[in-house]
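Hey,
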Amino acid sequence: MRPGRSRPYPPAVTGTRSRSAPRFRHLALPERAFAPVASTVLLLLAWAGVAHASGSGWVQTVGAVVAGLLILGLVAPAFAAPGLVLICERSPTDAVAGTAVELDVVGNRSMRCSTRSVGGKPLLLTRKLPSCLVIVPPRRGVLSSVTVRVATAAPLGLLWWSRDQVLELPHPLYVAPQARDHSGLLHRARTAEEGQGQPRSSLTGDSRGIRAYQHGDSRRRVHWHASAHTGDLMVRESETRADDPVLIVIELRRDLDVADRHAEEAMGEIVAQLSTGRRIVLETTEITGRVVAPVADRLSAGRRLARAVASFDGP
């Protein structure tokens, strides 16, 4: 079978940052600042007008206190946001692309957290109380960290200031592809011979008889005595053993969408073969090179396909 490929982890999942991004990673930025700032300015202008018209000292004093509190509420979170720290205490080992994954996280203070590099749901955390952060990896691959956005509006809740943080996982998360219709894939028995076309049957079984040559038969199977007797090219036909493993070869391209689609089709083929009790030998390209090894179940197949990377650029 020859489906498609992907990188160690696709940029669409881990997220990409420019070279200057790490320099500003701890810089806090305001969120939706226009409404809070405009409201504060209008309130202070209105209060200043009232204080000027009344001429009362206590009105001016109260106005100064209110102005100080409002300015503190707008600016204070900017100094608190860089100190926000989110830690992942527990994460699963395996997941499927497009499905929710729960991470146990804890923060050093109260904050709001939302995912950036993957899908998920925003989460409000209470200081030092473990919470569950839900992420949804959109692609297959090996996920060792996710980018999250942590934000705070303390102490008054007037304006949210946020920054991005790379949340390291306790161990790699293998995101397997979903199982897709495998009808278009080609699986072949693993054999050392080189026939032209698709190999027709295995040579490992007992001899069943002689038959006419067909396209794809290896020259090593030609029965020369029978061919000389009949005048046509004849080959030996063997019984196919039921316990012969099925070799599934995965060839992925660098186009992430195509590679993911082919990986999903490969997963569908593997699931179908395992459901019939067949043994599977999977051949993939990983960062370390070409890997040919058996897969015993859907979990191990998902990890292999999560680690698979592109092996060529062409179709």
